[in-house]
């Protein structure tokens, strides 16, 4: 599943511009590159275009310019190949969960990938254990607390063993223990490329070595996280 | 918005006409009035009647909007007109192909017109006006209640559908969008209903008053969504038969 090639950046954005309508462009000529295995934080005030950028990286939005994931251009005919490489965590965990039960939801991705229901279920259980989910495997997803939904949503991505993780505010709705667990979990993913949206500097610094800063849709900083300016 | 019957038909009608823009008034006079002249709908002129009424509303709603639905609605026309003709060609009926074409064509025009009518209506009347009209025509309060609830939560529902489809596609789901929605229907109904109830409770907590009861304390079991879906089908089925 993971691309062994080290030559191409894992995520590359070239002069990417996106607007929901002509009057209000959201992203302006955004260009950056993230190397395989690199952990990068994406900072920016609310409404600066962070989530829009993440959505563009997985092909949910299509603007002008180029986006490449593991050297594959993110266009309609390549979306299947792109999405095999990328796990995307929505900002709102309720949006991410669509199955009737927890185990069904987490096993959804692996079942689509290889078709083996039993194997998918095993992978789902392992993923749930890794994110510290201790609830009922057959609980309806919509009855979980937001923190539990966040863990289950993350498990659904990890069960697919992606090469790249795009996490949109993964620390929101988590208590202190949950944030600690998440930090340890992500720190162990050495060979996974990580792009993390967060407002929590401490959380970002413990995980990432680089940072990007979006201000009103413009990438104003790309460099070491230690010297990243405040939002 | 009041659901009570208007006290003066004349004042309501006058207000309705005054509120319409010039394009609507022109289309109404050019298409709808001649359409009425071609009544009754049981004869050949009936098909034209429905077309003209609907053209009036579709035109007033805007050509761009109408054209968006042109191809799928043309498909409806071809299916309804073509199937009876094919049965004649295959010798499954005693009637001639030309007769079946005309019959199917009239049914298709009637179907098309009713659909355009509904689409046009949706774009030329506000929600309040639409429901007031339905109440004025003595539509059962229960039906209006369902329509009100449906209208209030329709945006929420379509938003949930879109979210589910996106989330599925991102986790390598490759079957059709329709299969995806059907597969997620139970969860969709649960989520949309729960979310809608939360929104409505928030409105009530901020002073909104309504006689519509909250159903939050009720807990849906596994068979409830299936029963609800069956109820929806039973409500819609008679309308399909009338076409």
Helix content of chain A: 25-40%
Shape of chain A: globular
Find the count of extended strands of chain A (DSSP E, 2+ residues). 10
Q: Helical segment tally of chain B?
A: 11
Secondary-structure class of chain B: mainly alpha
Low-confidence stretches of chain A: 1-6
Please count the helical segments of chain A.
8
Task: Specify the structural class of chain A.
Answer: alpha/beta
What characteristics describe this protein?
heterodimer; A: 6-stranded mixed β-sheet; 4-stranded antiparallel β-sheet; 8 helices; 34% helix; globular; disordered N terminus; B: 243 residues; mainly alpha; 77% helix
SSE topology sketch:
The complex is a heterodimer of chains A (about 230) and B (about 240).
Chain A: E1 11-21, E2 24-34, E3 39-44, H1 50-57, E4 64-69, E5 72-73, H2 79-85, E6 86-89, H3 93-96, H4 102-114, H5 117-130, H6 146-158, E7 164-168, H7 176-187, E8 193-197, H8 201-207, E9 210-215, E10 218-224
Parallel strand pairs in A: 3-8, 3-9, 6-7, 7-8
Antiparallel strand pairs in A: 1-2, 1-4, 4-5, 9-10
Helix pairs in contact in A: 4-5, 4-6, 5-6
Chain B: H1 9-19, H2 22-37, H3 44-61, H4 63-68, H5 70-89, H6 97-124, H7 127-136, H8 141-170, H9 177-183, H10 185-205, H11 224-242
Helix pairs in contact in B: 2-3, 3-6, 5-6, 7-8, 8-10
